[in-house]
Amino acid sequence: MKTLAVTKINKIRNAKRASYDENTIHTILDQGLIAHVAFSHDGDPICLPMVYGRIDDKIYIHGAKATRMFKQLKQGIPACLNVTLVDGLVLARSAFHHSMNFRSVNIHGTAHLVEDEDEKYDALVAITDHMMPGRWDECRDMTKKEANATSVIALTIEQAAAKCRSGMPVDDDEDYALDHWAGIVPITTQFGEAINDDQLRDGIPVSPSIEKITGPTR
Amino acid sequence: MKTLAVTKINKIRNAKRASYDENTIHTILDQGLIAHVAFSHDGDPICLPMVYGRIDDKIYIHGAKATRMFKQLKQGIPACLNVTLVDGLVLARSAFHHSMNFRSVNIHGTAHLVEDEDEKYDALVAITDHMMPGRWDECRDMTKKEANATSVIALTIEQAAAKCRSGMPVDDDEDYALDHWAGIVPITTQFGEAINDDQLRDGIPVSPSIEKITGPTR
């Protein structure tokens, strides 16, 4: 078990919710679907949702070379990536102590363009398989043109931390005697049944990667 | 129906996914649970998940006065707020054309501290009721001490845009003849049944706001 160094930028003020354990951080990242990536553009902060993939201690995002985001990020600028899993509403007796149960990771670092062709290929596999494990091998092969049109940006999971809350509300001592209902409402994200593309050729069954997470296609 | 002005900062490159219609933007904001807020701190971008509320064309976030985020934001610095609803995985015949169905809003602007006491109170109601409509009135009254410990920051929904994708994958023409399965997998976020606080006094039923979105408490 590896613990990341705590520095000024990744230190979480509320120590009891903080974790710098690499396994905890990787597990949250692997369970998320989208990340929010922040960077600065002409002095203005920009925050965009992105799909992503992880290989060891690297997070990869991809996009068309022509986009503002990738033109910026490939220059090696500071970026911040957040993945948040929302687990439930926390309903206290006072509005003040309302909260959410969540597991969240922040990664701070310098985004850099992945130039090595093998690393880039592996990153694209990781991003596709993050969305749906095993999906890359079910697709037709990537063309050279597609690879050329795509940029991959990496961030190292080093200046990072997890912040999590779980469990019941924490009310002021004297409020526990009140008549107000308190508790939690769990939140779950679910995959529904796969829906065939309108133009799917007859007789093509839903592929194994999709069957694994959903029911049979309608 | 009001349409927001398109400027350099809120313009979305992929025009067919963009909307500047205020109703569309408000509807997405009202359906989200958490926002991601980006701002700059000592030159580094920071991106944090926050609960939020909306009143008309203002988005409000709140937090303890002592936090780094609120110390920064109250100075009136540029901020970017994103709310993203993920509706499904879009699985194409090529990995390249994989995508997500989503509805997303970005708001760019200058965060400012809410100093007016009435506006601040209304904002705190909006934030609590955004999480669970009607919940504010079910809580014990806010104390002066709680109000004093809390900062509220506002962002105006002006330099804003929605970006949405829906529907089936769009593959290259020649790929529709291939044998690869393609389609979508819907994603839904669901509230489970409310769970009573361990320390809830006997005989207190789950409150109406919670019953409205979930089943009876266990």
TrEMBL record, chains A, B:
PANTHER family: 5-NITROIMIDAZOLE ANTIBIOTICS RESISTANCE PROTEIN, NIMA-FAMILY-RELATED PROTEIN-RELATED, FLAVIN-NUCLEOTIDE-BINDING PROTEIN. It comes from the Bacteria. This is Nitroimidazol reductase NimA, pyridoxamine 5'-phosphate oxidase superfamily. InterPro entries: Pyridox_Oxase-rel, Split_barrel_FMN-bd. Pfam families: Pyridox_ox_2.
